[in-house]
Design brief:
With about 100 residues, the chain is of the alpha+beta class. The protein has 5 helices and 5 strands, in the order αββαββαβαα. The strands form 2 sheets. It has a 3-stranded mixed beta sheet. A two-stranded antiparallel sheet has the order 1-2. β3 and β4 form a beta hairpin. The chain starts with a helix and ends with a helix. The mean pLDDT is about 95.
């Protein structure tokens, strides 16, 4: 069965090209919703970037779209770029990502 967790596994392969850390580990993926319309399985992804002026924005969003489409059963994907809540690595990143970035609590 295709659900949020299966899509997240695929998205975990996408790395921020500057930090070389997974967008999932960074906490950039806020939500994944799976919708079925007329026998088409669609994924709606809400994500953010490390900063509004991120020079790799287009690259990251395209990689996110491609990765989600590789999820078995997913027929279409839409990536929504959101800015709320504002990304904060101390709040959103995993413990491993924080260590990789040198953030200590």
């Amino acid at each position: 069965m295709t659900d949020k967790s299966t899509v997240m596994v695929q998205l975990d392969e996408v790395e921020d090209p500057e930090l070389e850390i997974s967008i999932v580990e960074l906490g950039l993926v806020y939500d994944v919703r799976i919708e079925t319309k007329e026998n088409v399985l669609h994924a709606e992804i809400d994500m953010t970037l490390t900063s509004p002026g991120c020079p790799a924005a287009a690259e990251i969003m395209a990689a996110t779209h491609r990765a989600a489409l590789t999820t078995e059963g997913i027929d279409s994907v839409h990536v929504n770029l959101v800015w709320s809540p504002r990304w904060d690595p101390k709040v959103h990143a995993s413990e491993d990502a924080k260590m990789d970035m040198g953030i200590w609590d």
